Amino acid sequence: MRNDQRNMFPYWYWQHGLHDARITDAEKYDFPTDYNIYHGKKSNAYKNLLRLRIDASHALYDTTVTEIRFFNYEILSGDIDWQKHRDIWWLGDILTKSGTGYLLEIDLQILDAAPEKISLLIQFDFAEVKKK
């Protein structure tokens, strides 16, 4: 990646890649609906959260990521039964800007599933990334 392209990514993005990182756990949360009583309209609070716990110790590039949280997410394709499959590996990803949020396409390999490779497409408003 060229230096002039590095500033195109949000500050939380893992620019060097998570190839060969393992997703150890995934949890989905729905937050209570928050209505603005005085104005009679829905607030801009977060609606839901997808949290991916990552073991990046064997990743080729960025070994510091431990958790990724996607706020106001929607899985557009490739939804996974996270409780059934426990051996999920991150092969690569593409992050693009989508309106006021983002679109992340993650290529995964699930060793105990058929087909083994799957593309997970997540649309979200904001992300937080925890690092070591």
What does this entry look like structurally?
The structure is a single chain. Mean pLDDT is 85; it is low at 1-6. Helix content is 3%, strand content 52%. The two termini are 24 Å apart. Strand 8 and strand 9 (117-124) form a beta hairpin. By secondary structure, it is mainly β. It is globular. The longest helix is centred in the first third of the chain and has 4 residues, at 3-6. The strands form two sheets. The chain has an eight-stranded antiparallel β-sheet with strand order 6-9-8-7-1-4-5-10, with no helix packed on it. The chain has a two-stranded antiparallel ribbon with strand order 2-3.
Record keyword descriptors for this entry.
single chain, 132 residues, mainly beta, 10 strands, globular, disordered N terminus
Q: Describe the main β-sheet briefly.
A: 8 strands, antiparallel
Mean residue pLDDT: 85
Q: What overall form do the CA principal axes indicate?
A: globular
Please estimate the helix content.
Answer: under 10%
Number of strands: 10
Low-pLDDT stretches are 1-6
**How many individual helices?**
1
Succession of helices and strands = HEEEEEEEEEE
The chain-level structural class is mainly beta
CA(first)-CA(last) distance = 24 Å
**Estimated radius of gyration:** 16 Å
Strand order of the largest sheet: 6-9-8-7-1-4-5-10
DSSP strand content: over 45%
